[in-house]
Amino acid sequence: LVMFGGSVSVEKDATVNGSIVLLGGSLTLDGEVSKDVVVLGGAVKLGAETHIHGNLVTFGAPISRDAGAKV
Predict the structure, then answer these.
(1) Measuring CA to CA, which residue among 46, 9, 2 is closest to residue 24?
(2) Where residue 65 falls among pLDDT bands split at 50, 70, 90?
């Protein structure tokens, strides 16, 4: 999933089969991502049910992480 700007939300019990790349937007994640998450600019919110199987990479994007989030 590749997005330029805007907001991306992955809800609890949802799965992204692949990576998420977000340029200049906000990501709210409470589901599962099978590969990497890359956010350049914007913000990242990881909910308690988050499970990222790959890496989380940010540049200029603050991260808010609830207890229980797995990376």
Answers:
(1) 2
(2) very high
The span from the CA of 68 to the CA of 19, in Å, is 21
Structure tokens at 50: 């988050």
Unique residue bearing structure tokens 């805007």: 6
pLDDT at 3 over 90: yes
Phi, psi of 69 (to 5 degrees): -65, 135
**β-pair partners for 20:** 37
Among all chains, which residue has been given the structure tokens 């990497």? Answer: 36
Under 8 Å between Cβ of 59 and 42: no
Buried/exposed code over 35-61 (b: 16+ C-beta within 10 A; e: otherwise): ebbbbeebbbbbbebbbbeeebebeeb
